[in-house]
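Usage

Read records sequentially. Each one opens with the input sequence:
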Amino acid sequence: MYKFIFIISLCAAGSGWAHPVSFEDSKGVMGYHSPVLSHFQLNYSFRHWFAVGVHHFDIPDTRANRFSNFVSTNFLLKRWNGPSYQGNIYAVLGVGQSKFGDTSLGATLTKLQFDIEDRQYYFLTSYSQINSVREVELQDLVVRAGVAPYVASYKDIHSWLILEWRSNNVQQQGAFEDVTPFLRIFYKNLLFEIGQSFNGLTRFNYIAHF
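and closes with the structure output:
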């Protein structure tokens, strides 16, 4: 039983930066940053299956300040706990304001995510969409796969090699696809990723759970 709990806790730490719901009564600080799109969020998990969050999206633009802000409810829809792996399906529903266009408008945020991993292999795919009262302002599709070059104990520093394909379709900016190799380092409840895409864009992600 203790071995099972230990394995699952490592799985949760491995991909935790992207989990919109964590363990009960936990708080999460997460960020994804790139020259194309940045996303910062704070989450509080009331239960292992339900959390609330606040989100700030920012699109770097020399012509205008373009951003969106949301309050969300986050749900764990389904979880699979195997002898050495964990799989999850999450949904996020949010309301707020978006200024990706010329004016600030009421908007909604939706996201669906699937991930599965054990202590050595990792796969994640997610789709996010922001809709204003006028049109679709953002579509963000992500597919990631990773491998751990070594298996460490919980108290040690863990590392992963991850390859990410991402497609962004932003209002007034058009579609942009990119592939980025990432190096992930995490220690206990802290995680950091940094990568350089094949198009020359530097990206970094981080999370802290407490």
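Summary fields computed downstream for this record:
- The longest strand covers residues 66-81.
- The chain has one domain: 2-209.
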